[in-house]
Specification:
Length: 257
């Protein structure tokens, strides 16, 4: 029996466009609520949310069985953290702050067993192998790992052509917020100068035959990115959606106070 099929990776490989939602509330109950709505993928964020390994595990368990595919953004490219996430069953990763091809190659190595990589062998203890019930997990796990990397600085964008050539990169995600800050437009990712770089980066990714991804709560921008050919687009977060709903409800009864 092989490792479980990674439907997110299969969708990207088939050039499908998939719509996602960011999860930052660290709660399995919220994750399940978002999963039952039917987004194609849900990003469990451990970079800017207080998600530790146990919190991520509980959300993976809550999402399992729904249509939505889980993707995890670790706090960094730390090899030990990636190993822990692999063993609890994470198959799809969005690794932040990737600056160059050498860093990307090292991340690929972290996610794969030897000889392709350096992932430690502990499948007998791992949820990923169904606690060793998947008898050929070691031989098939790598086929179902999906690695997307995030470029979010001017230097990363400059190095994008080389990053795109790295074997084992399944997609590249553009981070407008950090890119804007790096360009001198902190908190202003919608500035024309920033958007020009964002769009050119997306075009470069698409022209290289790789899936391109991005997050924006702006529905007009999201549709423009999809029309451009972006493959995986996140259109909001659990936090922003709940906050907007609460503020709207509050305003309806408190006269906007």
């Amino acid at each position: 029996m092989p490792a479980p099929l990674n439907e997110f990776k299969a969708a990207l490989g088939a050039k499908e466009q998939v719509i996602g939602l960011w999860l930052g509330l660290t709660a399995p109950y919220t994750a399940e609520l978002c999963a039952q709505v039917g987004f194609d993928w849900l990003l469990i964020d451990a970079e800017h949310s207080p998600n530790d390994v146990n919190a991520i595990l509980s959300q993976l368990q809550a999402i399992k069985g729904y249509k939505s595919s889980p993707v995890v953004r670790p706090p960094s490219d730390d090899r030990i953290m990636l190993k822990k996430l692999l063993d609890i069953g994470v198959q799809s990763f969005l690794v932040p702050m990737v600056e160059n091809a050498e860093q990307a190659r090292e991340i690929v190595r972290s996610l794969h067993y030897p000889p392709k990589g350096v992932r430690g062998v502990g499948a007998g203890l791992a949820r990923a192998s169904h606690f060793n019930a998947i008898t050929d997990y070691l031989q098939t796990a790598g086929d179902e790992i999906c690695l997307t990397v995030q470029v979010e600085t001017a230097s990363a964008v400059a190095n994008l052509p080389e990053i795109l050539q790295v074997d084992g990169i399944d997609g590249v995600f553009v981070g407008p917020a950090d890119l804007a800050a790096d360009m001198g437009y902190l908190g202003r990712p919608g500035e024309p100068e920033v958007q020009e770089v964002v769009v050119n980066a997306l075009k470069t990714i698409i022209a290289a035959g790789k899936p391109a991804g991005i997050l924006t709560p702006d529905q007009t921008l999201a549709r423009q990115y999809l029309d451009l050919g972006a493959s995986f687009v996140a259109v909001g977060s659990d936090i922003s959606t709940i906050t907007a709903g609460l503020r709207g409800l509050h305003g309806a009864f408190f006269n906007g106070k």
